[in-house]
């Protein structure tokens, strides 16, 4: 459920040895939604590209999150900086492991809310607009279109400076030597439940046995609208604000019923055991 006042182009990438999802790249206008099935045991990541332009053959570019200049990512990963939803699904009764990562930088706020099978599960995400407070040296500025001159993404310190201590590489490629940097601490302060650097596992990885994940893009946007962006508000406005509050300030624990009400205006729950990834793009208001 996404309040972004512009179209986004979600991309998906399967982990090593995993089959790609049925859709690896596509356009989603405001107010549209797509449900994508995934096989048990699947692992991979999902993100949103912005500022894209493609021709009739699916060739083009995106300002953020580009995956090889194609509409269909088809095995290509996202070009940083980009906000990521990452998941490894369990087989049978095994639990899922999931997180929101801004280790590779940030382009959009997003929230992930699982619908648990047996018990309540944690929503997680980064609902803050890091682009608004992004340090000058990390900023990516839009060069054309409706967002020209605006900060459209915020680089990680690794991407910006390429130093081992920021990238957790070389002699820093272990949790003892690689510690939070000034920049990762800024990210962590704004988004306490999201991965902010490579070894940020303790407060950023979540588990659940779920049959569906709701991925919400731009959940905060209704609070920062400009007069020119005003559109009729959908009936889920209060629900989205509640999810944003849950993710912005810990703890993030909630019941299945509350998460369902907060993330979707529909209470219809899938009866099938097949794992489903749900990407929902909401009308900006």
UniProtKB/TrEMBL annotation:
Q: Which CDD domains match?
A: TLP-PA
Q: Which InterPro entries match?
A: Osmotin/thaumatin-like_sf (IPR037176), Thaumatin (IPR001938), Thaumatin_CS (IPR017949)
Q: Which domain of life is it from?
A: Eukaryota
Which SMART domains does this entry report, sorted A to Z? Answer: THN (SM00205)
Pfam families xref list: Thaumatin
Designated name of the protein: Thaumatin-like protein
Q: What organism does the record attribute this protein to?
A: Rubroshorea leprosula
């Amino acid at each position: 459920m996404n309040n972004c006042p512009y179209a986004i182009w979600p991309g998906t990438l399967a982990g090593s040895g995993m089959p790609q999802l049925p859709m690896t790249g596509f356009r989603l206008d405001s107010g549209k939604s797509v449900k994508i099935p995934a096989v048990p045991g699947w692992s991979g990541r999902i993100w949103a590209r912005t500022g894209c332009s493609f021709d009739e053959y699916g060739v083009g570019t995106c300002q953020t999150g580009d995956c090889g200049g194609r509409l269909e990512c088809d095995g290509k990963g996202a070009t940083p900086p980009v906000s990521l939803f990452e998941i490894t699904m369990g087989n049978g009764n095994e639990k899922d492991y999931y997180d929101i990562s801004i280790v590779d930088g940030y382009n959009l706020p997003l929230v992930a809310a699982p619908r648990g099978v047996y018990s309540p599960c944690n929503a997680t995400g980064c609902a803050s607009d890091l682009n608004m407070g992004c340090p000058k040296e990390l900023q990516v500025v839009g060069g054309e279109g409706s967002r020209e001159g605006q900060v459209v993404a915020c680089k990680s310190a690794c991407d910006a400076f390429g130093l081992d201590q920021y990238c957790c590489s070389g002699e820093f490629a272990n949790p003892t030597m690689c510690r939070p940097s000034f920049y990762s601490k800024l990210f962590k302060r704004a988004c306490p439940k999201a991965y902010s650097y490579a070894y940020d596992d303790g407060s950023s990885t979540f588990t659940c046995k779920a049959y569906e994940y709701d991925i919400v893009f731009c959940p905060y946007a209704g609070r920062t609208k400009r007069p020119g962006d005003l559109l009729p508000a959908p009936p889920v406005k209060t629900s989205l604000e509640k999810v944003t509050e849950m993710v912005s300030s810990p703890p993030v624990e909630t019941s299945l019923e509350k998460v369902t009400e907060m993330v979707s205006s529909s209470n219809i729950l899938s009866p099938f055991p097949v794992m489903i990834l749900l990407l929902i793009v909401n009308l900006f208001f």
